[in-house]
Amino acid sequence: MRAVVLYEPGRAEVIDRADPVPGRGDVIVEVSGAGLCGTDVHIFEGLFPPTPYPIVPGHEFAGRVVAVGAEVDGLDEGEFAAADCTLTCGRCRYCRSGRYNLCLGWGAIGDTVDGAFAEYVSVPAVNVFRWPEHLPESWTPLTEPLACVVRGAERLGSVAGISVLVVGGGVIGALAGKLMRASGATRVDLCERGEVRRTRAADWADTTFDDVARTDEASYEAVVDATGSIAAIEAGIARLAPGGRYLLLGVAPADAVAGFSPYELFKRELTLLGSMSKRYSFQPALDLLHRGAIDLHSLVDQPLPLESYVDAVERVARGEGMKTVLAPDAG
Amino acid sequence: MRAVVLYEPGRAEVIDRADPVPGRGDVIVEVSGAGLCGTDVHIFEGLFPPTPYPIVPGHEFAGRVVAVGAEVDGLDEGEFAAADCTLTCGRCRYCRSGRYNLCLGWGAIGDTVDGAFAEYVSVPAVNVFRWPEHLPESWTPLTEPLACVVRGAERLGSVAGISVLVVGGGVIGALAGKLMRASGATRVDLCERGEVRRTRAADWADTTFDDVARTDEASYEAVVDATGSIAAIEAGIARLAPGGRYLLLGVAPADAVAGFSPYELFKRELTLLGSMSKRYSFQPALDLLHRGAIDLHSLVDQPLPLESYVDAVERVARGEGMKTVLAPDAG
Amino acid sequence: MRAVVLYEPGRAEVIDRADPVPGRGDVIVEVSGAGLCGTDVHIFEGLFPPTPYPIVPGHEFAGRVVAVGAEVDGLDEGEFAAADCTLTCGRCRYCRSGRYNLCLGWGAIGDTVDGAFAEYVSVPAVNVFRWPEHLPESWTPLTEPLACVVRGAERLGSVAGISVLVVGGGVIGALAGKLMRASGATRVDLCERGEVRRTRAADWADTTFDDVARTDEASYEAVVDATGSIAAIEAGIARLAPGGRYLLLGVAPADAVAGFSPYELFKRELTLLGSMSKRYSFQPALDLLHRGAIDLHSLVDQPLPLESYVDAVERVARGEGMKTVLAPDAG
Amino acid sequence: MRAVVLYEPGRAEVIDRADPVPGRGDVIVEVSGAGLCGTDVHIFEGLFPPTPYPIVPGHEFAGRVVAVGAEVDGLDEGEFAAADCTLTCGRCRYCRSGRYNLCLGWGAIGDTVDGAFAEYVSVPAVNVFRWPEHLPESWTPLTEPLACVVRGAERLGSVAGISVLVVGGGVIGALAGKLMRASGATRVDLCERGEVRRTRAADWADTTFDDVARTDEASYEAVVDATGSIAAIEAGIARLAPGGRYLLLGVAPADAVAGFSPYELFKRELTLLGSMSKRYSFQPALDLLHRGAIDLHSLVDQPLPLESYVDAVERVARGEGMKTVLAPDAG
Ligand SMILES: NC(=O)c1ccc[n+]([C@@H]2O[C@H](COP(=O)([O-])OP(=O)(O)OC[C@H]3O[C@@H](n4cnc5c(N)ncnc54)[C@H](OP(=O)(O)O)[C@@H]3O)[C@@H](O)[C@H]2O)c1
Ligand SMILES: NC(=O)c1ccc[n+]([C@@H]2O[C@H](COP(=O)([O-])OP(=O)(O)OC[C@H]3O[C@@H](n4cnc5c(N)ncnc54)[C@H](OP(=O)(O)O)[C@@H]3O)[C@@H](O)[C@H]2O)c1
Ligand SMILES: NC(=O)c1ccc[n+]([C@@H]2O[C@H](COP(=O)([O-])OP(=O)(O)OC[C@H]3O[C@@H](n4cnc5c(N)ncnc54)[C@H](OP(=O)(O)O)[C@@H]3O)[C@@H](O)[C@H]2O)c1
Ligand SMILES: NC(=O)c1ccc[n+]([C@@H]2O[C@H](COP(=O)([O-])OP(=O)(O)OC[C@H]3O[C@@H](n4cnc5c(N)ncnc54)[C@H](OP(=O)(O)O)[C@@H]3O)[C@@H](O)[C@H]2O)c1
Ligand SMILES: [Zn+2]
Ligand SMILES: [Zn+2]
Ligand SMILES: [Zn+2]
Ligand SMILES: [Zn+2]
C-alpha cells in the first residue's frame, strides 16, 4: 500500500509498504479520508513528545472495513466506519475511574502508532464505530474533533438559555459554536481574527467580532476558548459575567503562563474548566450527526492526495480553510 | 373595579369592589390577562386545601403597573410586567436552603390571597418582572407555566443529544416539548389522546402517538409526564431505556398510587424525579422567550371576559383549547 | 485443582479438575477466599438467567497471582490482588458511553464463566487490583460489595450534613451505612428485623429500628434500601422529607410491583434512584479501605471450606451472619 | 447603648448612643459576641468600597432577641440566635436566580449598615437563626465563616474518598479542613507558615507543611486556598493531580494577577472554582454544628471588650490567634 512515512521531524515521504494484517482483536480499515489538526503540525515539527519516529501519521479517519481479526465479533467486512484513535492502558488509576482521557499510558493511532495517512490502517475493533449511512462520507474526519468538543460541552454543563462567546473560529471553535446552539444557548457570538472564517461562521454565530476586546467585559455566561493563544485566554476570562463558566479547549504552549485575577474568580464565583480530548463522546458525536442536530457542510474542504502531506501540514499551521483532509484516492 | 369573587366552591360572581391600594412594598397591576390551569379547577371545586373563601382567583397574569408602594425602588408606574404569584415565608428550613418551592408557609396570589381575575391586583414588588417589550402581550399568561417547566427541566438535567417522550399534550406538555427541543434534545415525541392537541404539536413534536402503548418499551432516554394520570405515569416509566430519567410534572390525585418495578429501577439504573412549581425559573422563562428560544403562538387562545369565569373553568376541566385566559377588557 | 462445580441448579459437587492456564491477557489467581451473596443463591436455584451450567460459581474474590499471560504488562507473579468480576463487551452503546454496568453483553466471572469457588481461577489482567498490603486479607471478599455501594453513593450524591435511613442491615446495608457515615452524613439510622444484625451495626448506626413503621414519616433527607423487599421499599419511600432522595440498592423479584404516590413525588420533589452493580468504583472502594475511611471488621465471618458450598448458600439465603466466605484452605 | 463607631478609616471610638428600635420586620438582638475577619481590617483601613462612614462595624454575631417588630411572626423575645449579616435586593437578576451572593445591590449588617460591635443591633427577622441550645455560645461568631466555607464546599463538589490540601491555616482554612474531613475526604493536609496555627490544626490535619513547595506537585485531588496570597494560589494550583479541583476561598487584592498554565488546565482537565461568601449555607452550617459533625473548640479565642476594637483589628491583620471576638460584656 501507499503510505506517508514521517522518518523524523520534517522529513516525510510517500512510499509503498506492506499492507497491514489484522491482529486477533483488530480490523483493517481502507482509509477513505483522514483529517489533520494542530497535533499533526506538532508531530511534523517534532513537538509532540510521545511520537516515535518513523511513523505513519493520521488520527482523524474513517473508511471501509476490509479484514477482520480472528477474535472480532459483530463487525463485518464491508462496513463503513469512523475510528476513534484513542489507545488506553485500561489498568491505570485514570482508566479504572473512567477518566480514560487522562490515562497514564495514553497513546493514539497516528500519534504513537502507525495511522491513517495510508491506504490501509489497522485498528482495534473496539475503536471502530458504524457510520450512519445517510450522512456524507466527507464528514467523517470531523467526528474526532466533534467528539473532543462534546467532551468539552460535558465539562461546561448546561448552556440552555444562556449566552456564550466562542473565541477562535477554526474547526474546533466552529464545532463548539454549533454544539452550543444545538444545546439551547440562546446567544452564541464568535471572536475570530480571520475574515474568511468569520464569514464561514454565518450558519451559527449571532454576532462576530475580530477582536475579543470589542466584546463587553463581564457579559457572557459562558466563554469557550478555541485558540490556545495566551492573549485570547486572558481576554476571554475577563468576558465572564458573575457566575460565569470558562471552557478551555485551546492548547497553549506547554511553558506558557496566563494571568487571571483571583479576586474576580472569588468575587464573581467564576469556574474555569480544562477539557482534554474525548471521553465517551465519540458515539454521542455520531448521534448528534445522525439525528441532524449538527450540520458539517460549512467545515469540509476538498480532500488532498497523500502526496500533499507536507503542504497540508503547512496549510493547517497557517490556519487556512477549515478541515484539511488527505485521501488516498484524491486528486 | 370589577372582580370575580368565588364565595365558596362552585359559587362565583363578578362584582364591583374597591380598587386595591398598594402596601409599602407592593405595586398595583392593571391586569391585561390572567390564565387558568388545573389549580383553578381545583380551587373552583374546593379541592385545593390552602384556599380561603371568599377569594378572587387568578394566578397567571401580567399587566401595567399603575401604582407603587412607598418603599418600592426601581419600578415605575407605566411599566408592563409579568407577575410571579409565589408567596413564601422566607424563614422556614426550605426557604433558607433556597428550595422555596417547598416552603412550609407557601402561598400564592390568586390561590391563597386575592388574585388577578379582576381589573386590578396588588403584588409585592419583588414578584414583578419586566416584560420584554417586543414580545406579544398575549403570551404573558404562559410565563408562569413555562417557569414551572423550566424548573422541571433543571431537575431532569441535560437533554442535549438525547431522545425524549412527552406524555400529555396540554399546555404543560407542549411547553415541555418546546423546551426539550430548544435544549438540544435530538428527538422529541408526544403521546396525547386528543387529536386537536396532537395537531397543535406540529411545531415541536417529531412523532405523535395517541397512546403510550404504541411507543416502544425501554426506548427513550428521558420521559416527561404532563398528564398526572396514573395509567400514563405507569406506562411512561416503562418507556425508559437503561440509564433513563423520568420527570413527573403531572399532578396526580393526592391518594392515588402508581406501580413501578423496583427490579427495573435497579437493573436499568433509572432515575425518577418529581418537580413542583417554580424555583428561580421565572426570569429564565422570560429570558428564553426574550431570546427567541421558545415561541408561544401555538398555545395562545382568544381571551374571554371575566364574566366567562365559570365557563373558562369548565373549558380547562374538559381539556379544551390550550391556554384559557380571562381579560377584563375582553369581549 | 479442587473446584465446586454446579452441574445444574441445585446439584453441586467438589471435584478435581485441570488447573486453568492463562490466556494471553489473563492471569491465574490462587484463591484465598471468595464471598457469597444473593446472586449465588439465585445461581444455585437456577434463577439467574445469564448463568450457563455447569459452572464454577464465586464472583467476590482475591488471591495471589501465580501465572501471568504472555501479553500482560506490569503485573507480576506473587502479587496479592482483589479481582473485579465484571466482564463487558467494550463495544455496545453503554460500554461506549462509560455506563459499562449497563453493558448489553454483560458477564461476570463466577456468574457467566467459571469463578472462584476453586483453588485457581483465570482472570483478565485488567480485572485485577493490587490489594493494599497493610489491610487484612480477610476483608478481600468485601471489596466487590463495597464497590457496588460506592456506585450507589455516587448515584445518591452528596450526603454531607444530612440524615440518612438505611433499610436492611445485611452486608450491603452495613456497607452503605458505613459509607454514608464516612461521607459526612450527620445522622445514619438503620431499620433491620434481625436483632443480631442490629447489634452488629453498633459501630455505624445512630439509632436502630426493627420496623420501618417505627421511624417518622417524611423525616429523612435520604433513604437507602438494602433489602429488595417490596414492603420495605414502599415504607422507605414514605420516609423521605421534601426534597429527599431515595437510593434503591436492593434487588426485588423481577415481576414484583411497588406502589408509590405520584402526588408526593411531585409535591415533595422527590428523587428515586436505582443503582446497579459497580461502575468505576472498584478502585475507589479499595482507596476507601486503604485510607482507613471504612473498617470491615464487623462484617467478616469465619471462612468455610469449599465442601460447605451448599450450606453456605443456605446460610446466605437465611440471612445468617454477615459476609459468608469459602476458602480452599479453610477448616 | 455602648457602640464602636468608626467615623472614618482609622478613627474609631466607643460611644453611648440611642438603643435601636425595631422596624416592622426587624428584631433587636442584644449582642453576646461578634467576630472579626479580614473584611473588618479592610473596613478599618478604608479598603472595603461599599462601606459608608461613620459606621458601627461587626458582621459575625449572635445574641438574645430583646425586641420584635410589629410584623414579625414566629420569633419571640428571649430567643438566642445567630444572625446572617447578608442583605440582598431580592429583585436583581442574581437574586432572582437564587445566586443571591452575587446580588447587584449586596449589603451586609456591619459592612454597609450599622452592625454588632455594640450592645444592641437591629436585624431583619429573616436574617435570624435559632441557635441550637446545647452548643456553646462561644461558637456563635464562627457560624458566619463556617457558612462561607459550606458554600465553598458546595462549589467544590464531593470530596468523599479523596485527598485534599488546604493552604492557609487561619479560621477559614481550619473550618475548610474540618469540613473536608466531615465530608469524607480520606486525607486532609495543611500548608501554613505559622507554627502556632499548624499546632492548632492537630485535630483535623493529617500532615502539616510550612511551605506549599514541600508538598508533591500534581498530587492532590482537591486543593483549597484559604490565604488570598498570590504565591500560595500559584503554588496551590500546581499541586492538582490530573482531574483535580481547586477551590479559591482566599480573597486576593483586587488588582493582583496570578499566573497559571493553560496547557496544564487542558492537559490535566483541571477545574478552578471561586467561592464568594454564603449561599443558602447558614442553616446547613448550623446543622453541621448541631449534629456534631464539626467541633469548634480549637478555633475560639477569649473575647475582648468593645474598647479593644482597634487592637482586635490589628490582631487579625497580624494573623494572631484564631477567631478574634468582641463582646460588650467582656473583660
Ligand atoms: N481540547 C481538545 O481536546 C482539543 C482537541 C482538538 C484541538 N484542540 C485545540 O483547539 C484549538 C483550536 O483548534 P483548531 O483546529 O480550530 O485551530 P485553528 O485552526 O488554529 O483555529 C484557531 C483560530 O483561533 C484564531 N485566533 C487565535 N488567536 C485569536 C485571538 N486572540 N482572537 C481571535 N481569534 C484568535 C486563529 O486565527 P489566526 O489564524 O488569525 O490566528 C484561528 O482562526 C487548538 O489550540 C487545538 O490544539 C483541542
Ligand atoms: N409540576 C408543576 O409544577 C406543574 C405546573 C402546572 C401544571 N402541572 C400539572 O401538569 C399536568 C398537565 O397540565 P396541563 O395544563 O397541560 O393539563 P391538561 O390540559 O389537562 O393536559 C393534559 C393532557 O394529557 C392528556 N392525557 C391524559 N392521560 C393521557 C394518557 N394516558 N395518554 C396520553 N395523553 C393523556 C390529556 O388528554 P385528555 O384530555 O384526552 O385526557 C390532556 O390533553 C396537570 O396534571 C397539571 O396539574 C404541574
Ligand atoms: N445494587 C447492587 O449493585 C447490589 C449489589 C449487591 C447486593 N444487592 C442487593 O442488596 C440487597 C441486600 O443485600 P445483602 O447481601 O445485604 O442481603 P441480606 O443479607 O439478605 O440483607 C437484607 C436484610 O434486610 C432485612 N430486611 C428485609 N426486609 C426488611 C424490612 N421490611 N424491614 C427491615 N429489614 C428488612 C433482612 O432481614 P430478614 O433476614 O429478617 O428478612 C436482611 O437482614 C439484596 O437485595 C441484594 O440482592 C444489590
Ligand atoms: N470566600 C469567602 O467567602 C471568604 C470568607 C471569609 C474569608 N475569606 C478569605 O479567606 C482567607 C483566609 O481567611 P482567614 O480569616 O483564615 O485569614 P488569616 O487568618 O489571614 O489566615 C490566612 C493564613 O494563611 C497563611 N498563609 C498566607 N500565605 C501563605 C503561604 N504562601 N503558605 C502557607 N500559608 C500561608 C497565613 O500565614 P501568615 O500569617 O504567616 O501569612 C495565615 O495563617 C482570607 O483571604 C479571607 O479574606 C473568604
Ligand atoms: Zn490508563
Ligand atoms: Zn418558607
Ligand atoms: Zn457493552
Ligand atoms: Zn439582588
Automatic annotation (TrEMBL), chains A, B, C, D:
<dbReference type="InterPro" id="IPR002328">
    <property type="entry name" value="ADH_Zn_CS"/>
</dbReference>
<protein>
    <submittedName>
        <fullName>Alcohol dehydrogenase</fullName>
    </submittedName>
</protein>
<dbReference type="Pfam" id="PF00107">
    <property type="entry name" value="ADH_zinc_N"/>
</dbReference>
<dbReference type="InterPro" id="IPR020843">
    <property type="entry name" value="ER"/>
</dbReference>
<feature type="domain" description="Enoyl reductase (ER)">
    <location>
        <begin position="10"/>
        <end position="326"/>
    </location>
</feature>
<keyword id="KW-0479">Metal-binding</keyword>
<keyword id="KW-0560">Oxidoreductase</keyword>
<dbReference type="InterPro" id="IPR011032">
    <property type="entry name" value="GroES-like_sf"/>
</dbReference>
<keyword id="KW-0862">Zinc</keyword>
<dbReference type="GO" id="GO:0008270">
    <property type="term" value="F:zinc ion binding"/>
</dbReference>
<dbReference type="GO" id="GO:0016491">
    <property type="term" value="F:oxidoreductase activity"/>
</dbReference>
<dbReference type="InterPro" id="IPR036291">
    <property type="entry name" value="NAD(P)-bd_dom_sf"/>
</dbReference>
<dbReference type="InterPro" id="IPR050129">
    <property type="entry name" value="Zn_alcohol_dh"/>
</dbReference>
<dbReference type="InterPro" id="IPR013149">
    <property type="entry name" value="ADH-like_C"/>
</dbReference>
<dbReference type="Pfam" id="PF08240">
    <property type="entry name" value="ADH_N"/>
</dbReference>
<dbReference type="InterPro" id="IPR013154">
    <property type="entry name" value="ADH-like_N"/>
</dbReference>
<comment type="similarity">
    <text>Belongs to the zinc-containing alcohol dehydrogenase family.</text>
</comment>
